[in-house]
């Protein structure tokens, strides 16, 4: 799809979210809730007493962003099925081993999970949503995200070498 | 006007969940169609291989920004309906730096990983698992890194305010930057030999034109709100402003700042108390000229002090006097209260000049917020006159004595709630106290009678009482001290920690011959925010695991005869096996000057014998949750036991659930 058209479509979905929910799009909030639910199954007392997750309980998944994340997955699935783009794989460069890519994905995920709690949002909730709302902090987040991404990019390029 | 789930406070209802699910589906489709189900394509942006991320993201941001700005400019949606995230510079800069590394390393961000997973990418699954663990790590480290989390908190700040531009001009600049980026990355991709689809240039030309025209249109739109306020200025700026004569604050700006709940903004009404009581700007404190220097001392050169009177003369004199005493942060309200009434609160229909829709919407929002006749939307934290920390009792929640209460009566942030019966209240109450029947905080929940109501209903009661989250609420009791602690449980459930119970109750107040009143005070209903579920209420399942696993002490606070089963008002007699009995009445002492709690050291000694350490988990219960509220208050709020839980449903539910065990076993 023409990326600009995809962008317009995405922008309209975001606008609809503003007008219906009164809040923008978000993904890391849902992921964090899943994390909280996971921790609560392993250590219910501890999680309930914890300072950050605690107030979310005991129904950690009863939150609109959890449903939005589920929807995002379903939407991706619908679109990928209709476009015949589903292929179980570990995406990487041909010269990169599965193990390396998996470790990168795991550590990258750890960093992103942590950073999006610290910044109160991710590329969806801060950069995209806060950017469209013209919030200072969100735009600063977007700027530093790209700056640090570009600065760090060369260290992780190996995973895409063919 | 568009009403959103957020605006209605129903973002945690099934309807909102369904809407979020549908919006999520569309979000997923958009991401997948953009090609973001591939981490290789996503990270391509960092290697100048594939710039789709820039194109999609910028198109989306500009589209939504223009759309939202048009809806707002046309007055179709008001800012109160939208959730704006706070700007926390330190946390967001640091977060952005870490996020960037994680993004380029992991190849995904949370939303795209969900789509990647749907496309069969196993690395997306690993990434999401990592992100969950990262969130858990954040939770575990939170006590340590909490200062980082709020480092550089500015509240809600818009970039155009930070840059001192109008929304329209910033939107235009932002759009032009985006369009320049589009052409730049297309050029870059052309240089890199990436083949672009035919006709892309033609499409991009018209797309660019449309965006620029829409952005231009926004600047011409009548009534596009000008930036209402700059960022809170630093100390040096403020002094410079005073020196350069820029020490006036326009009514519109003050109104917006108050509605935003700006911290560090102190509005002071310097008129006589009588005039203040008739009407004042919501959130303003009343300090007379003679006491100004003394009362304002804690705010000297901290934040912003705005003085007002009916006109300008008195505030200007006061400002000059304060300035000579070294105050660099005193502002005057332009045209005083008269100007505020005229420019902010005058109804749209009475104005000589017609107002643009957006301006009219702004006036309506101000009127709704500042006019006492019409309850406004919930004030953001700090908007109501909040007490200074040094004005509060030492430990909250806690106890206050009549002397403390008498000294602070009349403060706008102090709310006294009289929990006695209505005849008692009517025949004489503490001046300014409002009457509340503690039964109003309870009702049937999930089939169990006399349960503390869920947060939305409690917030409704608090709203009717005119309470704000920053208020200090003092509960005044009659014969039953535990009425005060039950009302305290309602506050606890709403996360309202600023509450205290009057030691000795009304009897002590009367015995000390303190003032009484029979006037019904005017109450301005508030919109008390609804909090998420509390952490301290447990149900019978938790009590059952505590009973079986012995990982918590079950403290039954009913009178001894009920504990032993000699007396019973319920389905079955007796108690929860393993429970310890400590009747609530043991904690209070009734004297001829009222019912109050026993001395702290006596209570501490008594509970030391029952509960081994301050960390031990304790579940308190009685028959309906009323008496247990007192033990909860004593243990958690006065004696510092950290893990106290409240089995609200109590013996009423336990006795009625035949499957639950009861001691002592009685053969029928």
Query: Helix amount of chain A, in percent?
Result: 55-70%
Give the mean pLDDT of chain B.
86
Structural class of chain B: alpha/beta
Q: How many structural units, i.e. domains of chain B?
A: 4
Distance between the termini of chain A: 25 Å
So what's the overall shape of chain A?
Answer: globular
3D shape of chain B: globular
Strand content of chain B: 5-15%
Please report which band the strand proportion of chain A falls in: under 5%, 5-15%, 15-25%, 25-35%, 35-45% or over 45%. Answer: under 5%
C-alpha end-to-end distance of chain B:
65 Å
Query: The biggest beta sheet of chain A, please?
Result: none
Gyration radius from CA atoms of chain A, angstroms: 18 Å
Number of H/I helices of chain A: 7
Kindly describe this structure.
The complex is a heterodimer of chains A (162) and B (668). Chain A has two domains: 1-88, no CATH class; 92-162, no CATH class. In chain A, 65% of the residues lie in helices and 0% in strands. Chain A has helices at 3-20, 28-42, 44-49, 64-82, 98-118, 123-132, 136-152. Chain B is of the alpha/beta class and 668 residues long. Helix content of chain B is 46%, strand content 11%. Chain B has 27 helices and 20 strands. Chain B is globular, with a radius of gyration of 30 Å. The chains are: A mainly alpha (162), B alpha/beta (668). At the A-B interface, helix 1, helix 2, helix 3, helix 4 and helix 5 of A face helix 1, helix 2, helix 3, helix 4 and strand 1 of B.
